[in-house]
From TrEMBL, chain A:
<protein>
    <submittedName>
        <fullName>ABC transporter permease</fullName>
    </submittedName>
</protein>
<feature type="transmembrane region" description="Helical">
    <location>
        <begin position="51"/>
        <end position="72"/>
    </location>
</feature>
<keyword id="KW-1133">Transmembrane helix</keyword>
<keyword id="KW-0472">Membrane</keyword>
<feature type="transmembrane region" description="Helical">
    <location>
        <begin position="130"/>
        <end position="155"/>
    </location>
</feature>
<feature type="transmembrane region" description="Helical">
    <location>
        <begin position="162"/>
        <end position="187"/>
    </location>
</feature>
<feature type="transmembrane region" description="Helical">
    <location>
        <begin position="93"/>
        <end position="118"/>
    </location>
</feature>
<feature type="transmembrane region" description="Helical">
    <location>
        <begin position="207"/>
        <end position="228"/>
    </location>
</feature>
<keyword id="KW-0812">Transmembrane</keyword>
From TrEMBL, chain B:
<dbReference type="GO" id="GO:0005524">
    <property type="term" value="F:ATP binding"/>
</dbReference>
<keyword id="KW-0813">Transport</keyword>
<feature type="domain" description="ABC transporter">
    <location>
        <begin position="1"/>
        <end position="221"/>
    </location>
</feature>
<dbReference type="GO" id="GO:0016887">
    <property type="term" value="F:ATP hydrolysis activity"/>
</dbReference>
<dbReference type="InterPro" id="IPR003439">
    <property type="entry name" value="ABC_transporter-like_ATP-bd"/>
</dbReference>
<comment type="similarity">
    <text>Belongs to the ABC transporter superfamily.</text>
</comment>
<dbReference type="InterPro" id="IPR003593">
    <property type="entry name" value="AAA+_ATPase"/>
</dbReference>
<protein>
    <submittedName>
        <fullName>ATP-binding cassette domain-containing protein</fullName>
    </submittedName>
</protein>
<dbReference type="Pfam" id="PF00005">
    <property type="entry name" value="ABC_tran"/>
</dbReference>
Amino acid sequence: MPFVPVLHAEWIKIRTLRSLLGALAAVLVVTGAFSAVTAARADRSDPLYSVFFGVSLGQVAAVVFGALAVSGEYRGGALRLTLAAAPDRTRWFAAKVVAVALPVLAVGLLTGLATLAVGSATAGLTWAQGLRGVVGCALYLTLMALLAAGLAGVLRSGVGTLGLLIPFLLIVSFVVGDLASGAAGYLPDRAGQLALHSAPEGPLGPWTGLAVTALWAGAALGAGAWCVRRRDA
Amino acid sequence: MAGPGAHRRAVDGLTLTVRPGRVTGFLGPNGAGKSTTMRLVLGLDRPTSGTATLDGHPYAGLRDPLRRVGALLDARAAHGSRTAHDHLLALAVSNRLPATRVGEVLERTGLAPVARRRVRTFSLGMRQRLGIAAALLGDPEVILLDEPANGLDPEGIVWVRTLLRGLAAQGRTVLVSSHLMGETAAFADHLVVLGRGRLLADTPVRDFIDARVRPRVRVRSTDADALGTLLARHGHEGERAADGTWTVRHAHVEELGRLLAGEGLPVLELAAEEASLEEAYLDLTAGEAEFTAQPQEV
């Protein structure tokens, strides 16, 4: 069973759901809007994060996109129909993952460029910082969407996945991050967002931080793939 | 093959061959294992032992499986926010079927006028039609439909019957599950009856009827008592209703008609009763139903 037709089918499934297109649009709008607000009052000590602050809220939309793209398969026996058409489960899940990753990566790049265009006028960033911000923003959002997609494959529920991830991103990570800065730096959102800071502190650099987030996302996707393979559909 | 289940086996020791060119009705009470069997065939559930193959090959090894097997498992499988057209388009593309097939199956299932409507606005009957459209998409030679008549109006049931008969006449293999005997007898040529995961019958519909449906005759005369005496004298087992009508088991109208004429007893009514197909089925599956209501004291 070839990969490309399955990938094409998964892309059709994504582009034909308004909720998913809405979530992608929200990544751009939310990130851009909050960044515009904070960039206007740029923090001299960390100008890059002032410009890209909106990502910490825009990521919620990316997580919603990743979770819903997968959890739609667990409603009303949809997965049975999907796997009847594409019985190689590993290949199907890989197609789903690519179909989730590519749109978020594209929207993430667009979001990064738009955010930079809005904020750079006041923040005074170097070229290198700006480039790192744009690429980091796109990669970070993509990895968070994939983390959500993998978790949704394990939990088989959009509500369950979002109920776990959104409070984690908006509350737990902030609280835990302030209490124990050592290990908390390796949490997926903390580590990945290092790419959006002017001068990251601690053991991780901007790219190694993203690599840590990639490990989290990879682990979630691996667990998701395992569940898709092993469980009855 | 034997089916999964941590606490009980859904399907046990089931060996089944479904032949092309006829509609096979797959019958059994709720929980008998019909849906599980279909999921096992499609590789969606794993058998604990045994194999399910199509032409000797496991389903998962098929290239473009929709071109070989079309299945309706659950009418709710289409996402409510997607249109009928987009739902089918994604399926068609995944199996490299031309996009024109989508229009063709929508036309064939009568959904063409609502192709651009979201599935959530569909009635259960329309969703069943969409599920059947998906099963027909790849023009497959094997068609598995799980309770396709659920939610269909009488017109829809006639349509399904015509469709299934037509598909079988083209030489396709058609397996249709149902928990209703009357419905199944209407469109199937062959019957497979399942109870608690075991095979209870695998027989042509006609043979099933001949073997299990005991003929019954309803007879009424001007003199109910004389009729009763006559029946008893000739060894017929009859039941008398309040209005004097006798119902005679294991009898034929030809036989009783001659008997009454010979005795000169005026006949007011003499009719064969064929309505006991459902009873024959209930009789077969009695004690095999997974969920039966306790008889209630009145």
